[in-house]
Amino acid sequence: MKNKNNRPEDAAELLRIADEALRKSEERYKRITEAITDYIYTVRMAEGRAAETTHGPGCLAVTGYRAKEFAEDPFLWFHMVPTEDRPGVEEQALRILTGEYAPPIVHRIVHKNGTVRWVRNTFVPHRDEHGALVSYDGLIQDITELKRAEEALRESEKRFKQLFDLMARGVAIYQGVDDGQDFVFVDINRAGQSFSKIRRDEAVGRRVTEVFPEVKQNGLLDVFRRVWRTGQPEHHPLSEYVDGRVQQWVENHVLKLPSGLIVAIYSDITEKHRAEEEIRDSEERHRRIVESSSDAFLIRSGEIVIYVNPAALKLFRANHPGDLIGKRYLDLVHPDDRAISAEQLKKSIDENWVAPPREHRILALDGQVVHVESTGVSVKHRGETQAVGVYRDITERKRAEDKLRVIAAELEQMALTDFLTNLYNRRYFMQRGAEEFKRATRNSQPLALLMLDIDEFKKVNDTCGHEAGDLTLQQVAAALKSSLRETDIIGRLGGEEFAVLLPNTSLEGADLLAERVRLSVANTSFEMSPGEVLISTITISVGVAAFTDEMSGIDDLLRNADAALYCAKNSGRNCVGVYKKNSDATGVLPSA
Length: 592
Fold this sequence. Notes:
This protein has 592 residues and is of the alpha+beta class. It is built from 20 helices and 23 strands.
């Protein structure tokens, strides 16, 4: 197959573009490194354990959470670290607690918006005069863009290398030395190695005058020197080069890259004398390539398989070529994918047919379903148009993609719910509230809202500890779920405050439902730890409000319900407050 970029000027332009792209990638990597976002958090120790964590204001930009949210939830930072990265974070924390040196670590966190960020976590311990750890600071640097830039730089270098090595012409790259009087090999592509009968490792780092001792006599060295000095490309015409190692006829095109490197693009016409022999050997050579390929090759005449390589035997779970040769191609395709394959089969009789890459399934001889990526092309062989299909097993990749989809769904669910109670979090509850408010406005349907707050919750935390407080929140959430309807929307707004949206519910209906919820919680025995029942009763106060035409949004409904809750709190707690639609005051229903 001919290379479209076989002209020297085309090859030179490609090298200039690739060199410039690589240089820009390196500059971008440097800029990102200099602009890494960071913030500091401080962990205060008491009796050998973490007692308090304070996050600096920069945490919002890096994590999406405010310092207040970290203060309210001591485990928030740890839960932001993906499960697979937690052992490393835990190991670093243990090193600090035991007095060992804890070097910086790089790990991932899940941003509040659900995206995955890369951070560098650097620890600075502070000890008292006895060497006891009293606190430690952590420097969090957001290096997500740095990671992306590293990957982009690797890809840029890879593309440059691929372009370089796949060029049909010989290409050698040199660095000027001795003020441009001599030139050292930086690289040489595969074609150049073949033309010059030298390996890359034999050339790189050596002077051109050492590798090609007759280069000055040949006149090419003078061309190198002029191009290095002026920056203007030059053509060195067809000439014979002879030394004790090689004898060949070559022509060179020499240019200077923006980076200052000198590039020589050359062709060896000596190969033309070997063309006839190569043509005779071509079929055997290509057969060996196909036979040793890890991709499966399958050749059809019409719809009948006439050739398979060893990789195809493995792909289709066949023991011998005869197990596949002679079979109808469509019989090897999964039934659900045969329609598209049949269309491709009809098109393949055209001698110009080229099938773009596509993914589909095949049926191995043992009945297994195998996911493949395939492409195809028609070829002429002894006057007959045949179709060559190339197949790659992507079953494992498809399984990995399925796992990623499951993980994405789990992350999405995590973004919608409160991690402690498994109720909707405030952000998603407000989103659903806005939707329900619009629906009620559009369809003139009733809509009510309950605001609930655990009475004297601070006493639970102060008396029994925060772990007991967390258990209380979870048990109140369970009681709410059990006493509400499936259509009701429950959310934890923060701390001990909950809210419930009641679609298609009037104020009177919401009032009754609120009283039922209040009683359900009041009659529940709460555990502070497994098997330990709290003697005193946990109660809640409830504020009830309903949608009216005067409201402009869900915030108005929340404001009224909050006013009713405030009134219930001031009326002795453990009762229901109802925001009266026809009055400026908020009424309170007595507790049952």
